[in-house]
Protein backbone atom coordinates (compact mmCIF):
# COMPACT_ATOMS: atom_id res chain seq x y z
CA UNK A 1 0.00 0.00 0.00
CA UNK A 2 2.82 2.38 0.93
CA UNK A 3 4.64 1.48 -2.31
CA UNK A 4 1.62 2.26 -4.47
CA UNK A 5 1.10 5.57 -2.66
CA UNK A 6 4.73 6.47 -3.24
CA UNK A 7 4.41 5.63 -6.94
CA UNK A 8 1.38 7.90 -7.24
CA UNK A 9 3.29 10.75 -5.58
CA UNK A 10 6.25 10.23 -7.90
CA UNK A 11 3.97 10.22 -10.95
CA UNK A 12 2.26 13.42 -9.82
CA UNK A 13 5.65 15.03 -9.24
CA UNK A 14 6.88 14.00 -12.71
CA UNK A 15 3.71 15.33 -14.35
CA UNK A 16 4.05 18.66 -12.56
CA UNK A 17 7.70 18.94 -13.58
CA UNK A 18 6.77 18.18 -17.20
CA UNK A 19 4.15 20.93 -17.14
CA UNK A 20 6.67 23.39 -15.70
CA UNK A 21 9.24 22.32 -18.30
CA UNK A 22 6.70 22.82 -21.08
CA UNK A 23 5.96 26.31 -19.81
CA UNK A 24 9.64 27.26 -20.02
CA UNK A 25 10.42 25.36 -23.23
CA UNK A 26 12.07 27.03 -26.23
CA UNK A 27 13.66 29.61 -23.98
CA UNK A 28 10.46 31.66 -23.84
CA UNK A 29 9.96 33.70 -20.72
CA UNK A 30 6.26 33.18 -20.13
CA UNK A 31 4.51 35.24 -17.47
CA UNK A 32 4.18 33.38 -14.14
CA UNK A 33 0.99 31.67 -13.07
CA UNK A 34 -0.48 28.82 -11.06
CA UNK A 35 0.84 25.35 -11.86
CA UNK A 36 -1.39 23.59 -14.39
CA UNK A 37 -2.26 19.95 -14.96
CA UNK A 38 -2.19 18.28 -18.38
CA UNK A 39 -5.41 18.60 -20.42
CA UNK A 40 -7.48 20.23 -17.68
CA UNK A 41 -4.98 23.00 -16.94
CA UNK A 42 -6.11 25.21 -14.04
CA UNK A 43 -9.79 24.26 -14.31
CA UNK A 44 -9.82 22.21 -11.08
CA UNK A 45 -8.98 25.30 -9.00
CA UNK A 46 -10.94 27.84 -11.04
CA UNK A 47 -14.27 29.38 -10.08
CA UNK A 48 -16.40 27.86 -12.85
CA UNK A 49 -19.35 30.22 -12.36
CA UNK A 50 -17.19 33.37 -12.39
CA UNK A 51 -13.67 32.70 -13.77
CA UNK A 52 -12.67 36.36 -13.50
CA UNK A 53 -12.83 36.09 -9.71
CA UNK A 54 -10.12 33.41 -9.79
CA UNK A 55 -7.98 35.53 -12.12
CA UNK A 56 -8.28 38.53 -9.82
CA UNK A 57 -7.30 36.40 -6.83
CA UNK A 58 -4.33 34.80 -8.62
CA UNK A 59 -3.05 38.17 -9.84
CA UNK A 60 -2.33 39.12 -6.23
CA UNK A 61 0.22 36.29 -6.17
CA UNK A 62 1.53 36.28 -9.74
CA UNK A 63 1.15 39.90 -10.76
CA UNK A 64 -0.85 41.77 -13.43
CA UNK A 65 0.50 39.64 -16.31
CA UNK A 66 0.08 35.93 -15.74
CA UNK A 67 -0.25 32.63 -17.58
CA UNK A 68 -3.15 30.30 -16.89
CA UNK A 69 -4.34 27.19 -18.71
CA UNK A 70 -8.05 27.04 -19.43
CA UNK A 71 -8.15 23.35 -20.20
CA UNK A 72 -5.30 22.76 -22.67
CA UNK A 73 -5.38 26.36 -23.98
CA UNK A 74 -2.50 28.57 -22.86
CA UNK A 75 -3.94 31.93 -21.87
CA UNK A 76 -2.28 35.13 -20.73
CA UNK A 77 -4.45 37.26 -18.46
CA UNK A 78 -3.88 41.03 -18.16
CA UNK A 79 -5.10 42.66 -14.97
CA UNK A 80 -5.59 46.31 -14.06
CA UNK A 81 -6.04 49.57 -15.96
CA UNK A 82 -2.35 50.29 -16.52
CA UNK A 83 -1.65 46.79 -17.87
CA UNK A 84 -4.71 46.59 -20.12
CA UNK A 85 -4.16 50.09 -21.51
CA UNK A 86 -0.51 49.39 -22.20
CA UNK A 87 -1.48 46.31 -24.20
CA UNK A 88 -4.58 47.48 -26.07
CA UNK A 89 -3.61 51.11 -26.65
CA UNK A 90 0.17 51.51 -26.37
CA UNK A 91 0.93 48.20 -28.12
CA UNK A 92 -2.26 48.13 -30.16
CA UNK A 93 -0.78 46.44 -33.22
CA UNK A 94 0.58 43.53 -31.17
CA UNK A 95 -2.72 42.91 -29.38
CA UNK A 96 -5.22 43.39 -32.21
CA UNK A 97 -5.56 39.65 -32.92
CA UNK A 98 -8.84 37.91 -32.14
CA UNK A 99 -9.01 34.41 -30.71
CA UNK A 100 -10.86 31.73 -32.72
CA UNK A 101 -13.60 31.18 -30.12
CA UNK A 102 -14.77 27.60 -30.88
CA UNK A 103 -18.51 28.24 -30.48
CA UNK A 104 -18.44 31.24 -32.81
CA UNK A 105 -16.07 29.51 -35.20
CA UNK A 106 -18.51 26.61 -35.43
CA UNK A 107 -21.31 29.05 -36.29
CA UNK A 108 -19.40 31.37 -38.65
CA UNK A 109 -16.43 29.25 -39.83
CA UNK A 110 -14.14 32.23 -39.28
CA UNK A 111 -16.14 34.64 -41.46
CA UNK A 112 -17.47 38.02 -40.43
CA UNK A 113 -16.01 40.88 -38.44
CA UNK A 114 -15.82 39.66 -34.86
CA UNK A 115 -13.48 36.64 -34.99
CA UNK A 116 -11.53 37.41 -38.18
CA UNK A 117 -7.92 38.57 -38.34
CA UNK A 118 -5.45 40.02 -40.80
CA UNK A 119 -6.59 41.51 -44.10
CA UNK A 120 -10.12 40.12 -43.72
CA UNK A 121 -10.62 41.91 -40.41
CA UNK A 122 -9.05 45.15 -41.65
CA UNK A 123 -11.20 45.31 -44.75
CA UNK A 124 -14.43 44.41 -42.96
CA UNK A 125 -13.87 46.76 -40.03
CA UNK A 126 -12.99 49.70 -42.29
CA UNK A 127 -16.02 49.04 -44.49
CA UNK A 128 -18.37 48.53 -41.52
CA UNK A 129 -17.33 51.71 -39.72
CA UNK A 130 -17.54 53.80 -42.88
CA UNK A 131 -20.92 52.39 -43.91
CA UNK A 132 -22.52 52.72 -40.48
CA UNK A 133 -21.31 56.32 -40.24
CA UNK A 134 -22.66 57.08 -43.72
CA UNK A 135 -26.06 55.88 -42.51
CA UNK A 136 -25.96 58.13 -39.52
CA UNK A 137 -24.33 56.18 -36.67
CA UNK A 138 -23.53 58.80 -34.05
CA UNK A 139 -25.18 61.56 -36.07
CA UNK A 140 -28.49 63.44 -36.33
CA UNK A 141 -30.11 60.90 -38.65
CA UNK A 142 -29.54 58.11 -36.17
CA UNK A 143 -30.74 60.31 -33.33
CA UNK A 144 -34.05 60.73 -35.14
CA UNK A 145 -34.39 56.96 -35.62
CA UNK A 146 -33.84 56.37 -31.90
CA UNK A 147 -36.29 59.14 -30.98
CA UNK A 148 -38.92 57.54 -33.21
CA UNK A 149 -38.28 54.11 -31.69
CA UNK A 150 -38.52 55.65 -28.22
CA UNK A 151 -42.13 56.59 -28.99
CA UNK A 152 -42.94 52.96 -29.74
CA UNK A 153 -41.19 51.86 -26.54
CA UNK A 154 -43.10 54.41 -24.45
CA UNK A 155 -46.40 53.32 -26.00
CA UNK A 156 -45.66 49.68 -25.18
CA UNK A 157 -45.12 50.58 -21.51
CA UNK A 158 -48.29 52.71 -21.47
CA UNK A 159 -50.22 49.65 -22.61
CA UNK A 160 -49.16 47.75 -19.48
CA UNK A 161 -51.48 49.99 -17.40
CA UNK A 162 -49.00 49.90 -14.49
CA UNK A 163 -49.17 46.11 -14.15
CA UNK A 164 -45.95 44.16 -13.44
CA UNK A 165 -44.05 43.09 -16.57
CA UNK A 166 -40.70 41.57 -17.42
CA UNK A 167 -38.88 44.38 -19.30
CA UNK A 168 -36.55 42.05 -21.24
CA UNK A 169 -38.30 42.07 -24.60
CA UNK A 170 -39.57 45.61 -24.22
CA UNK A 171 -35.94 46.67 -24.37
CA UNK A 172 -34.68 44.18 -26.94
CA UNK A 173 -37.48 45.02 -29.42
CA UNK A 174 -36.69 48.72 -29.29
CA UNK A 175 -32.92 48.41 -29.40
CA UNK A 176 -32.97 45.72 -32.07
CA UNK A 177 -35.16 47.86 -34.31
CA UNK A 178 -32.46 50.53 -34.37
CA UNK A 179 -29.80 48.15 -35.65
CA UNK A 180 -32.38 46.56 -37.98
CA UNK A 181 -33.02 49.99 -39.52
CA UNK A 182 -29.30 50.35 -40.16
CA UNK A 183 -28.66 46.84 -41.44
CA UNK A 184 -31.95 45.72 -43.03
CA UNK A 185 -33.46 49.11 -43.84
CA UNK A 186 -36.62 48.41 -41.80
CA UNK A 187 -38.05 48.19 -38.34
CA UNK A 188 -40.36 45.39 -37.18
CA UNK A 189 -43.68 45.60 -35.42
CA UNK A 190 -43.44 44.69 -31.74
CA UNK A 191 -46.03 41.97 -32.24
CA UNK A 192 -44.25 40.41 -35.24
CA UNK A 193 -44.02 36.74 -34.22
CA UNK A 194 -40.94 36.01 -36.33
CA UNK A 195 -39.15 39.06 -34.89
CA UNK A 196 -40.00 37.97 -31.34
CA UNK A 197 -38.81 34.44 -32.11
CA UNK A 198 -35.42 35.77 -33.24
CA UNK A 199 -35.09 37.97 -30.13
CA UNK A 200 -35.86 35.00 -27.92
CA UNK A 201 -33.12 33.02 -29.65
CA UNK A 202 -30.66 35.90 -29.16
CA UNK A 203 -31.49 36.08 -25.46
CA UNK A 204 -31.00 32.33 -25.03
CA UNK A 205 -27.81 32.41 -27.09
CA UNK A 206 -26.10 35.11 -25.02
CA UNK A 207 -27.09 33.41 -21.79
CA UNK A 208 -25.88 30.06 -23.11
CA UNK A 209 -22.38 31.28 -23.99
CA UNK A 210 -22.16 32.76 -20.48
CA UNK A 211 -23.20 29.49 -18.84
CA UNK A 212 -20.74 26.81 -17.64
CA UNK A 213 -22.01 24.46 -20.38
CA UNK A 214 -21.36 27.06 -23.03
CA UNK A 215 -17.85 27.63 -21.73
CA UNK A 216 -17.21 23.89 -21.70
CA UNK A 217 -17.83 23.89 -25.44
CA UNK A 218 -15.20 26.61 -25.92
CA UNK A 219 -12.68 24.66 -23.80
CA UNK A 220 -13.27 21.15 -25.17
CA UNK A 221 -15.07 21.64 -28.51
CA UNK A 222 -14.10 18.30 -30.08
CA UNK A 223 -15.28 16.35 -27.05
CA UNK A 224 -18.49 18.36 -26.75
CA UNK A 225 -19.44 17.62 -30.36
CA UNK A 226 -19.93 13.99 -29.33
CA UNK A 227 -21.87 14.75 -26.15
CA UNK A 228 -25.60 15.53 -26.02
CA UNK A 229 -26.58 18.84 -24.55
CA UNK A 230 -27.87 22.36 -24.94
CA UNK A 231 -25.12 23.36 -27.38
CA UNK A 232 -26.69 21.30 -30.18
CA UNK A 233 -30.02 23.07 -29.62
CA UNK A 234 -28.29 26.46 -29.80
CA UNK A 235 -26.54 25.60 -33.06
CA UNK A 236 -29.91 24.68 -34.57
CA UNK A 237 -31.52 27.88 -33.31
CA UNK A 238 -28.72 30.05 -34.67
CA UNK A 239 -29.49 28.55 -38.08
CA UNK A 240 -32.92 30.21 -37.82
CA UNK A 241 -31.22 33.61 -37.49
CA UNK A 242 -28.87 32.85 -40.38
CA UNK A 243 -31.81 31.78 -42.54
CA UNK A 244 -33.64 35.02 -41.70
CA UNK A 245 -30.58 37.07 -42.69
CA UNK A 246 -30.13 35.16 -45.95
CA UNK A 247 -33.79 35.82 -46.79
CA UNK A 248 -33.23 39.54 -46.26
CA UNK A 249 -30.08 39.46 -48.39
CA UNK A 250 -32.00 37.81 -51.26
CA UNK A 251 -34.76 40.43 -50.96
CA UNK A 252 -32.12 43.15 -51.18
CA UNK A 253 -30.55 41.55 -54.26
CA UNK A 254 -33.90 41.67 -56.07
CA UNK A 255 -34.48 45.35 -55.24
CA UNK A 256 -30.90 46.70 -55.28
CA UNK A 257 -30.44 50.26 -56.56
CA UNK A 258 -26.73 50.90 -57.19
CA UNK A 259 -27.28 54.65 -57.13
CA UNK A 260 -29.22 54.76 -53.87
CA UNK A 261 -28.24 52.11 -51.29
CA UNK A 262 -30.65 52.23 -48.38
CA UNK A 263 -28.81 50.20 -45.71
CA UNK A 264 -25.74 48.15 -44.78
CA UNK A 265 -26.75 45.09 -46.84
CA UNK A 266 -27.22 47.21 -49.99
CA UNK A 267 -23.77 48.71 -49.53
CA UNK A 268 -22.20 45.28 -49.02
CA UNK A 269 -23.93 43.91 -52.13
CA UNK A 270 -22.66 46.81 -54.22
CA UNK A 271 -19.11 46.29 -52.94
CA UNK A 272 -19.45 42.54 -53.58
CA UNK A 273 -20.44 43.15 -57.21
CA UNK A 274 -17.65 45.70 -57.69
CA UNK A 275 -15.06 43.15 -56.58
CA UNK A 276 -16.55 40.00 -58.10
CA UNK A 277 -13.51 39.54 -60.37
CA UNK A 278 -11.00 40.00 -57.53
CA UNK A 279 -9.96 36.48 -56.39
CA UNK A 280 -8.61 37.88 -53.09
CA UNK A 281 -11.67 39.93 -52.16
CA UNK A 282 -13.18 39.63 -48.71
CA UNK A 283 -16.51 40.93 -49.98
CA UNK A 284 -18.50 37.77 -50.55
CA UNK A 285 -21.66 36.15 -49.17
CA UNK A 286 -19.96 34.31 -46.29
CA UNK A 287 -18.45 37.50 -44.89
CA UNK A 288 -21.68 39.41 -45.49
CA UNK A 289 -23.70 36.83 -43.55
CA UNK A 290 -21.12 36.73 -40.77
CA UNK A 291 -20.87 40.50 -40.41
CA UNK A 292 -24.63 41.07 -40.49
CA UNK A 293 -25.05 38.36 -37.85
CA UNK A 294 -22.34 40.04 -35.73
CA UNK A 295 -24.11 43.41 -35.96
CA UNK A 296 -27.57 41.97 -35.30
CA UNK A 297 -26.52 40.10 -32.15
CA UNK A 298 -24.18 42.73 -30.68
CA UNK A 299 -26.48 45.60 -31.66
CA UNK A 300 -29.42 43.99 -29.88
CA UNK A 301 -28.29 42.22 -26.75
CA UNK A 302 -25.56 44.33 -25.15
CA UNK A 303 -27.42 47.65 -25.21
CA UNK A 304 -30.83 46.20 -24.32
CA UNK A 305 -29.29 44.27 -21.42
CA UNK A 306 -27.62 47.48 -20.19
CA UNK A 307 -30.91 49.42 -20.25
CA UNK A 308 -32.71 46.59 -18.46
CA UNK A 309 -29.98 46.61 -15.82
CA UNK A 310 -30.17 50.41 -15.55
CA UNK A 311 -33.86 50.23 -14.63
CA UNK A 312 -33.07 47.48 -12.13
CA UNK A 313 -30.51 49.69 -10.38
CA UNK A 314 -32.82 52.71 -10.41
CA UNK A 315 -35.55 50.62 -8.76
CA UNK A 316 -32.97 49.45 -6.22
CA UNK A 317 -31.90 53.06 -5.60
CA UNK A 318 -35.13 55.13 -5.90
CA UNK A 319 -33.44 58.32 -4.65
CA UNK A 320 -31.11 58.22 -7.67
CA UNK A 321 -34.08 57.69 -10.00
CA UNK A 322 -35.85 60.66 -8.44
CA UNK A 323 -32.78 62.90 -8.72
CA UNK A 324 -32.45 62.01 -12.42
CA UNK A 325 -36.12 62.84 -13.00
CA UNK A 326 -35.78 66.20 -11.26
CA UNK A 327 -32.83 67.05 -13.49
CA UNK A 328 -34.67 65.89 -16.63
CA UNK A 329 -37.79 67.90 -15.65
CA UNK A 330 -35.70 71.02 -15.07
CA UNK A 331 -33.77 70.81 -18.35
CA UNK A 332 -36.24 69.17 -20.78
CA UNK A 333 -39.63 69.08 -19.08
CA UNK A 334 -42.08 66.23 -19.62
CA UNK A 335 -43.20 67.04 -23.16
CA UNK A 336 -40.21 67.89 -25.37
CA UNK A 337 -38.41 64.95 -26.97
CA UNK A 338 -34.89 64.49 -25.51
CA UNK A 339 -31.95 65.15 -27.85
CA UNK A 340 -28.24 64.41 -27.62
CA UNK A 341 -27.63 68.13 -27.16
CA UNK A 342 -29.33 67.78 -23.76
CA UNK A 343 -26.59 65.48 -22.45
CA UNK A 344 -24.21 68.28 -21.50
CA UNK A 345 -27.01 69.88 -19.44
CA UNK A 346 -27.80 66.59 -17.65
CA UNK A 347 -24.51 65.81 -15.86
CA UNK A 348 -26.06 63.70 -13.09
CA UNK A 349 -28.11 61.65 -15.54
CA UNK A 350 -25.07 61.17 -17.78
CA UNK A 351 -23.01 60.15 -14.75
CA UNK A 352 -25.59 57.56 -13.70
CA UNK A 353 -25.68 56.02 -17.19
CA UNK A 354 -21.88 55.74 -17.22
CA UNK A 355 -21.91 54.22 -13.75
CA UNK A 356 -24.52 51.65 -14.84
CA UNK A 357 -22.13 50.51 -17.56
CA UNK A 358 -19.19 50.38 -15.18
CA UNK A 359 -21.08 48.53 -12.48
CA UNK A 360 -22.75 46.06 -14.86
CA UNK A 361 -19.33 45.14 -16.26
CA UNK A 362 -21.11 43.31 -19.08
CA UNK A 363 -18.10 41.48 -20.56
CA UNK A 364 -15.77 40.96 -17.56
CA UNK A 365 -13.11 38.92 -19.38
CA UNK A 366 -13.31 41.01 -22.56
CA UNK A 367 -13.69 39.31 -25.91
CA UNK A 368 -10.62 37.05 -26.18
CA UNK A 369 -7.63 38.48 -28.02
CA UNK A 370 -4.92 36.36 -29.64
CA UNK A 371 -1.19 36.41 -30.24
CA UNK A 372 -0.87 36.14 -34.03
CA UNK A 373 2.91 36.33 -33.51
CA UNK A 374 5.31 36.22 -30.55
CA UNK A 375 4.71 39.35 -28.45
CA UNK A 376 7.20 40.99 -26.10
CA UNK A 377 5.35 42.58 -23.20
CA UNK A 378 6.67 43.82 -19.86
CA UNK A 379 9.75 41.63 -20.01
CA UNK A 380 7.86 38.49 -20.97
CA UNK A 381 7.23 36.71 -24.25
CA UNK A 382 3.66 35.82 -25.12
CA UNK A 383 4.06 33.02 -27.71
CA UNK A 384 2.15 32.90 -30.97
CA UNK A 385 -1.25 31.15 -30.69
CA UNK A 386 -1.76 32.23 -27.07
CA UNK A 387 -5.21 33.46 -26.07
CA UNK A 388 -5.04 36.83 -24.32
CA UNK A 389 -7.67 38.12 -21.88
CA UNK A 390 -7.32 41.89 -21.19
CA UNK A 391 -9.80 41.80 -18.33
CA UNK A 392 -12.29 44.67 -18.48
CA UNK A 393 -13.51 43.67 -15.02
CA UNK A 394 -10.10 44.50 -13.59
CA UNK A 395 -10.24 47.94 -15.25
CA UNK A 396 -13.79 48.81 -14.24
CA UNK A 397 -13.05 47.67 -10.67
CA UNK A 398 -9.47 48.99 -10.44
CA UNK A 399 -9.11 50.30 -6.89
CA UNK A 400 -6.50 52.80 -8.07
CA UNK A 401 -8.96 54.36 -10.53
CA UNK A 402 -12.30 54.31 -8.72
CA UNK A 403 -13.02 55.64 -5.24
CA UNK A 404 -15.58 52.93 -4.40
CA UNK A 405 -15.16 50.33 -7.18
CA UNK A 406 -17.47 47.72 -5.61
CA UNK A 407 -20.37 50.13 -5.02
CA UNK A 408 -22.88 51.61 -7.44
CA UNK A 409 -21.85 55.24 -7.13
CA UNK A 410 -22.61 57.89 -9.81
CA UNK A 411 -20.17 60.23 -8.03
CA UNK A 412 -17.43 58.37 -9.91
CA UNK A 413 -18.37 60.54 -12.90
CA UNK A 414 -19.07 63.84 -11.14
CA UNK A 415 -16.68 66.51 -9.86
CA UNK A 416 -17.08 68.52 -6.66
CA UNK A 417 -19.39 70.98 -8.47
CA UNK A 418 -21.65 68.30 -9.87
CA UNK A 419 -20.26 68.56 -13.39
CA UNK A 420 -19.69 65.45 -15.45
CA UNK A 421 -16.08 64.22 -15.43
CA UNK A 422 -14.47 61.55 -17.54
CA UNK A 423 -12.45 58.69 -16.14
CA UNK A 424 -9.70 57.18 -18.33
CA UNK A 425 -10.48 53.72 -16.92
CA UNK A 426 -14.01 53.72 -18.39
CA UNK A 427 -13.55 50.77 -20.76
CA UNK A 428 -16.99 49.10 -21.16
CA UNK A 429 -16.49 49.03 -24.95
CA UNK A 430 -12.89 47.80 -24.60
CA UNK A 431 -10.13 49.92 -26.19
CA UNK A 432 -7.64 49.97 -29.01
CA UNK A 433 -8.08 48.55 -32.48
CA UNK A 434 -10.64 45.95 -31.39
CA UNK A 435 -12.92 48.32 -29.54
CA UNK A 436 -16.64 48.02 -30.26
CA UNK A 437 -17.55 49.32 -33.73
CA UNK A 438 -20.98 50.33 -32.45
CA UNK A 439 -19.80 52.38 -29.46
CA UNK A 440 -21.18 55.72 -30.66
CA UNK A 441 -24.53 54.11 -31.50
CA UNK A 442 -24.73 52.39 -28.11
CA UNK A 443 -23.92 55.62 -26.25
CA UNK A 444 -26.67 57.44 -28.13
CA UNK A 445 -29.22 54.68 -27.52
CA UNK A 446 -28.47 54.43 -23.81
CA UNK A 447 -28.89 58.16 -23.29
CA UNK A 448 -32.00 58.73 -25.42
CA UNK A 449 -33.89 55.60 -24.37
CA UNK A 450 -33.19 55.98 -20.63
CA UNK A 451 -33.96 59.72 -20.54
CA UNK A 452 -37.18 59.18 -22.53
CA UNK A 453 -38.30 56.43 -20.16
CA UNK A 454 -37.63 58.45 -17.00
CA UNK A 455 -39.26 61.52 -18.51
CA UNK A 456 -42.58 59.68 -18.80
CA UNK A 457 -42.50 56.92 -16.16
CA UNK A 458 -41.41 56.09 -12.63
CA UNK A 459 -40.22 52.53 -12.21
CA UNK A 460 -40.73 50.29 -9.21
CA UNK A 461 -40.79 46.63 -8.27
CA UNK A 462 -43.81 44.66 -7.02
CA UNK A 463 -41.46 43.45 -4.24
CA UNK A 464 -40.06 46.89 -3.44
CA UNK A 465 -36.40 47.97 -3.73
CA UNK A 466 -35.27 45.18 -1.39
CA UNK A 467 -36.80 42.61 -3.74
CA UNK A 468 -34.32 43.54 -6.47
CA UNK A 469 -31.08 41.52 -6.65
CA UNK A 470 -28.54 43.29 -8.89
CA UNK A 471 -25.95 40.50 -8.66
CA UNK A 472 -25.59 38.64 -11.99
CA UNK A 473 -27.31 35.33 -12.53
CA UNK A 474 -24.46 34.22 -14.80
CA UNK A 475 -20.88 35.54 -14.78
CA UNK A 476 -18.71 33.83 -17.32
CA UNK A 477 -18.24 35.33 -20.79
CA UNK A 478 -20.81 37.95 -19.84
CA UNK A 479 -22.43 39.24 -16.67
CA UNK A 480 -26.08 38.37 -17.25
CA UNK A 481 -28.58 40.19 -14.98
CA UNK A 482 -31.38 38.25 -13.36
CA UNK A 483 -34.87 38.43 -14.82
CA UNK A 484 -37.25 40.61 -12.83
CA UNK A 485 -40.63 42.32 -13.06
CA UNK A 486 -41.15 46.06 -12.90
CA UNK A 487 -44.07 48.47 -12.75
CA UNK A 488 -44.00 51.46 -15.13
CA UNK A 489 -46.18 54.16 -13.55
CA UNK A 490 -46.99 57.21 -15.74
CA UNK A 491 -45.75 60.44 -14.19
Automatic annotation (TrEMBL):
Pfam families noted in UniProt = p450
Tell me the GO molecular function terms: heme binding; iron ion binding; oxidoreductase activity, acting on paired donors, with incorporation or reduction of molecular oxygen, reduced flavin or flavoprotein as one donor, and incorporation of one atom of oxygen
* Protein name, per record: Cytochrome P450 2G1-like
GO annotations under biological process?
Answer: aflatoxin metabolic process; organic acid metabolic process; xenobiotic metabolic process
Instruction: List the Gene3D superfamilies hit by this protein, alphabetically.
Output: Cytochrome P450
Query: GO cellular component terms?
Result: endoplasmic reticulum membrane
Q: Does Iron count among this protein's keywords?
A: yes
Q: Which organism is it from?
A: Culter alburnus (Topmouth culter)
Query: Where does the record say this protein resides?
Result: Endoplasmic reticulum membrane; Microsome membrane
Q: Name the CDD domains for this protein.
A: CYP2 (cd11026)
Binding residue positions for heme: 436
Amino acid sequence: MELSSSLVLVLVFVVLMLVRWKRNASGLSLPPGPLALPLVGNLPIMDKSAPFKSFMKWSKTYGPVMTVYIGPQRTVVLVGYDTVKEALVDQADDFKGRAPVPFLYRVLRGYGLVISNGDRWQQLRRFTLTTLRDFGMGRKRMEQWIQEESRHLLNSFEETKSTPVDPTFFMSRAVSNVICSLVFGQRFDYEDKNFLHLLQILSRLVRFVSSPWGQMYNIFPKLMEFLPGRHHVMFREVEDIKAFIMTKIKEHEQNLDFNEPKDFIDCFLIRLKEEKHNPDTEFHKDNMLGTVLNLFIAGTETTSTTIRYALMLLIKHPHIQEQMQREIDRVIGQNRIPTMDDRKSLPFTDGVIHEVQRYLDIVPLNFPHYATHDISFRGYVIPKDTVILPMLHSVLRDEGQWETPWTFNPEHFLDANGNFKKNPAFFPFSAGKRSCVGESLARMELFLFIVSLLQKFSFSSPKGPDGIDPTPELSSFGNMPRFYDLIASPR
